[in-house]
Amino acid sequence: MLFNEPSAFVDLGYLEGTHAPGRKSLVDFLRASHTVNLAQGEGFRALKSVRPSARVGTAFSMSPCEAATNSEEDKLAAERAHAITNLWFLDPALKGRYPDALAFLRRPSWASSQAISKR
C-alpha cells in the first residue's frame, strides 16, 4: 500500500491543524496534497518497475455529498464538496489529473512545475 487515507492525514495536518505539523492553511493543504499525489504516482511507478506483477494501491476514504435542496446553487456546492472530499486524491491516481469540478485550482501558483502523469 502506498498511502492509507491520504485525505485524512493531509487534511488533519495542514488544513485543520489537529495532527502534525499542526498547520491551518488552505495553501499548505493544497501544496501538501499535491506533493502526496505526486509521491503516489512516483511510488507506483517505482514499485512496478522492479516488480511489474505487484498489486499496488492506496486506501482512499470516501464520503457521500448530497445537495441540501434541488437548487442549482446547492447542486454545484455538492459537486464541489464531492470533488474535494472524494476525488481530490482519487482522480490523480486513476486519471492523472484533478477533478473537473475544481478546475479553478488547476496550475495555481502553489503547485510545483512537476505534472501528475497518468499511470
Helicity level:
40-55%
* Percent of sequence in beta strands: under 5%
Low-confidence stretches: none
Derived structural class? mainly alpha
Number of contiguous helices: 3
Please provide the count of β strands.
0
How would you summarize the topology of this molecule?
Elements lengths: L5 H10 L10 H25 L21 H24 L24
Helix pairs in contact: 1-2, 2-3
Task: Give a structural overview.
The longest helix is centred in the first third of the chain and has 25 residues, at 26-50. Helix 1 packs antiparallel against helix 2. The chain is 50% helix and 0% strand. By secondary structure, it is mainly α. The chain has 3 helices and no strands. The two termini are 16 Å apart. It has helices at 6-15, 26-50, 72-95. The mean pLDDT is 89. The relative contact order is 0.17.
Structure, briefly:
This protein has helices spanning 6-15, 26-50, 72-95. The protein is mainly alpha-helical and 119 residues long. The chain is globular, with a radius of gyration of 15 Å.
List keywords for this structure.
0% strand; globular; mainly alpha; 119 residues
